[in-house]
Amino acid sequence: MIISRRVTIVRVSRPTEGDKDINKKLQWFGDSLGLFNLRDKDKSCFRVFIELLKAAKLRQPLSSDEIALKLGLTRGTVVHHLDKLMGSGIVVTQRNRYMLRVDNLRDLVEEIRHDVNKTCDGLAEVADQIDHALGI
Fold first, then answer.
1. In principle, which of 1, 66, 111, 116 could form an S-S bond with 62, CB 3.0–4.6 Å?
2. Cβ neighbours of 116 (radius 10 Å)
């Protein structure tokens, strides 16, 4: 079984150390992972992410209907964003309920780092094989 994840890392100006606005930091966190884009005018993906973060704190997975009801969004919109978050490896599903892959953001970063390192190791291995086959 091949598991495909799209991990995007974007270098975005970081909020200042003295900035106490947690929403700015959360927005920066998601922007740095390429989760949110400019077309999302009502920040619905950001809002879905925040609901999942709150649920992680309570260790309580949510259904797409629960998220839609809490946020005043259509279930289709929520499912669209959940699919994107699952595709990036940040969200997982169990029995039609969604949750962050891990319980906190620090662990999430470490999981992403592990995924990226594993992918780079695989790339290097195949690059060596190609170089050897081409005699370079």
1. 66
2. 13
* Alpha-carbon torsion (82, 86, 87, 89), positive or negative: positive
Task: For residues 21 and 9, give the distance between their C-alpha atoms in angstroms, rounded to a whole number.
Answer: 22
Q: Is the CB of residue 9 less than 8 Å from the CB of residue 85?
A: no
- 22-134: in CATH 3.40.50.300: no
Nearest of 12, 6, 80 to residue 42 by alpha carbon = 80
DSSP one-letter string for 71-119 = HT--HHHHHHHHHHHHHTTSEEEETTEEEESSSSHHHHHHHHHHHHHHH
Q: Are 45 and 69 in contact (CB under 8 A)?
A: no
- Distance, in Å, from the CA atom of 59 to the CA atom of 112, rounded to the nearest integer, reads 20
Domain boundaries, the chain: 22-134
Mean pLDDT by 10 residues, the chain (136 residues): 69 84 89 80 89 93 97 95 91 93 91 91 96 96
